[in-house]
Amino acid sequence: MPDEITRSPVDTVPALDEPTNKAGSDTSTSSPPSVQDLKAKVGADISAATEAVKDGASSAMEKVQDTVVERSNFAARQVGGIASALQKVGAELANSDQQEVGRYAKEIGDGVQSFARKIEGRNFGQIVGMAEEFGRKQPLAFLGVAALAGLAASRFLTASAKRSSSSAANEQTGANASQGMAPSPLSGGRYNG
Fold it and tell me: Which residue ranges of the chain lie beneath pLDDT 70?
């Protein structure tokens, strides 16, 4: 009993870094975590973070590759459509008085159709390489497809320009009417007023 009186309450409370058993009594004393333990813990955390980043990057790359494959399949369908059109034109010309031109158009269509089948499911780098090879093997077909693509692009751009200028004119006419002003002769509108 005398020993219990001389002990302070602080002596009976276990230290924060000392483990206790379920009954709350002191167990053997242990030292604070060593530098080695901390290094091991940090190393494990870094490894886990690295794995998480690799998994995320892998997932992102799979999504990009899926998108590229989808786009290449779309491009293959578009090129296949051009090839079918060339083959039809070739067949019609072959049955008319321009048989030689029809034969060339059909050959170009066949070459383009073959190219379309080859690019399906390929990535962008492979498609570029195949296009270069196609251009070397069948320069006439390559130039024909390039000309058709240029024609399609120019028609798209001119149609877009006409649509945007007509919508701008309609907006101008609507603004003039709401302000009670006569429309300008350039807008093509009529004054009702």
Answer: 1-31, 163-193
Domain that holds residue 70: 44-144
Question: Which secondary-structure segment (H or E) carries 29?
Answer: none
Q: What pTM value is reported for the model?
A: 0.44
Is 80 within a domain?
Answer: yes
Q: How many structural domains comprise the chain?
A: 1
CA atoms within 13 A on the CB side of 51: 6
Partners of residue 26 on adjacent β-strands:
20
User: What are the pLDDT digits (tens) for 42-83?
Assistant: 888 888 888 888 888 878 888 887 787 788 788 888 888 888
Domain presence at residue 5: no
Q: Is residue 124 part of a domain?
A: yes
- C-alpha span between 32 and 39 (Å, rounded): 14
DSSP three-state, residue 26: strand
